[in-house]
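Q: Sequence in, structure out?
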Amino acid sequence: MSSVLFATLGPSGTCHEFATKSYIEFQQISNAKVELVTDFLQALEWLRNGKLDFIVQNSAHPEVYQLTEKYFREVFVIDTFLFPTQEMAVLTRRGVEHPHSLGLMPATRAYIDTSKWETIIYEPSKPIVARCLLTGKYDSGLTHMRYAEEYKELLVVDEVIGSVDTTWLVYGRQRRSRDGVIGIRNPALFSKEQFSNEPVEAS
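A: Exactly. Output:
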């Protein structure tokens, strides 16, 4: 049986990788493989040319419109799903009393007030933010909370963001939507009695 090849944003440890592997497990695709990429536009070319089968991308990624539009007659959004991010936080190098520079992904900039830092440096993924923070490229970084525990002698937590429920897009070459809604019918989700912080399961 040939492999079903998914591409998503690397390097290893990204929310994209975690979400993609969880989606594959949810869909029970036993022969799936995940290719971690640094360039979604290159992955789009590979998908179009048949070198990949699917791409998974977070809906907040700044290149979503390009993947959706560039080859809109050949590459399609074929599924979406909800999945939480990993725990996030603003971490600062230990010993820096007044941080002046911040590293983060463009897609995460609205989580915090970036006016606190004089210099903002954008990176393609949160693991890269952590790596550059540890090497001293900037004073603070919005990255995964786990790095504060892994490098507790080097990093301190300045602000906890936590895990955020977000949406993910799955791209493929076979169009699914022709007319009408494709989704899970869940009227209970919109019942006023259900308005709370508790998750509502589809029936």
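The first strand starts at residue 4 and ends at 9.
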